[in-house]
Design goal:
260 residues; alpha+beta; 2 domains; 9 helices; 55% helix; elongated
C-alpha cells in the first residue's frame, strides 16, 4: 500500500477507532478533493457524538479478485481484535527462525488455539490461479496445434514436391535459380496460411475481447498482436515448407527427368 496524502497510523497515538486511512475510491465516493480529505471527520461504527478523522489516503490496490472493481476502503485500528487472522510484518532474511519465534509467542499468549500461518502474497496469488491454469492450458494446446499443423504441412509439402519433381527439373534446365524455385513452390502454401489467418483473426479477436471484458480493469487488445501472430505463422509455414523446396531446387534435374 502506497500513501498518497497524509500519514499511516502512528503506534503511539492510540487513537483507536478515531483515525482513518481511506483509499482513492473512497475519496471519490465521499466527493472529497485530495487536498481537503486529511482532517475530514468520519463517523463509522456508531461512534455517537465523537467522530474520528481521516489521517491518510492510500493509492487504490486490489484486495479482491481482478474480476471485481476496487471498492471504497476505510481502515482503522481496532483495540479489541476478535477476528480470525492476525497480520504480522516480518523480514524475509530468516523466515524459519522468525516463524518459530512467532509460534513460541503465540503458544505462550493463546495456548488453547492452534498456530497456523500463511503468507499474504501467496494468498493473493491464489486469486489468480484460474487465469494461470487457463494460460498454461492454452499454451499447451496451442503448442500441440502448431506441432500437428506443421506435421500436416510438412507431409503435404512432401507430397506436392514429389508430384512436381519433373516440372521443377524442367525449370532448372531452362535456367531457373534456386531462389525462384523456392518462392514458386512456397507461395501456394503461404496463400493457404494467409487464408487461415483471415478466418482466425476475427474469431480470436472476438474471443479475447469477450474474455477481457470479464475483468473490471483491462489493458485492451491491440491490433499489433495479430501482426506478430501473422508474421510468426508465415515464418513457421515457410520454415516447414522450405526444406522440401530447397531439396527439390538443389536436386539433380537429370535424376528427376529419368524417373517414370
Amino acid at each position: 500500500m502506497k500513501m498518497k496524502f497524509g500519514n499511516y497510523f502512528h503506534p503511539d497515538s492510540k487513537q483507536y477507532e478515531r483515525e482513518f486511512v481511506i483509499n482513492e475510491t473512497a475519496l471519490k465516493h465521499f466527493g472529497w478533493k485530495p487536498e481537503e480529505a486529511i482532517g475530514k471527520q468520519m463517523n463509522i461504527g456508531g461512534r455517537g457524538d465523537n467522530p474520528g478523522k481521516v489521517i491518510g489516503v492510500i493509492e487504490d490496490f486490489h484486495f479482491k479478485h481482478l474480476h471485481d472493481k476496487i471498492d471504497p476502503l476505510v481502515m482503522f485500528l481496532e483495540p479489541y481484535y476478535e477476528g480470525t487472522f492476525m497480520a504480522v510484518k516480518m523480514k524475509a532474511t530468516d523466515l524459519k527462525a522468525t516463524i518459530a519465534s512467532v509460534e513460541t509467542t503465540w503458544n505462550k499468549t493463546v495456548p488453547n488455539y492452534e498456530f497456523e500461518y500463511s503468507f499474504l502474497d501467496e494468498t493473493f496469488d491464489k486469486l489468480f490461479d484460474q487465469e494461470k491454469r487457463l494460460g498454461q492450458l492454452f499454451g499447451v494446446f496451442s503448442g500441440l496445434a502448431i506441432f500437428v499443423s506443421c506435421l500436416g504441412l510438412f507431409g503435404l509439402a512432401s507430397f506436392t514436391m514429389e508430384q512436381s519433381k519433373k516440372s521443377v527439373a524442367v525449370r532448372k534446365v531452362l535456367g531457373a535459380s534456386v531462389s525462384n524455385i523456392v518462392v514458386m513452390m512456397s507461395k501456394d502454401f503461404l496463400k493457404l496460411v494467409l487464408i487461415g489467418l483471415v478466418i482466425a483473426i476475427p474469431i480470436a479477436y472476438y474471443a479475447m475481447e469477450k474474455w477481457l471484458h470479464e475483468f473490471a480493469y483491462n489493458v485492451g487488445f491491440g491490433w499489433m498482436v495479430f501482426v506478430y501472430a501473422a508474421l510468426a505463422g508465415v515464418l513457421v509455414a515457410f520454415g516447414t515448407v522450405s526444406y522440401h523446396s530447397l531439396k527439390a531446387a538443389t536436386s539433380n534435374p537429370v535424376n528427376s527427368l529419368k524417373d517414370q
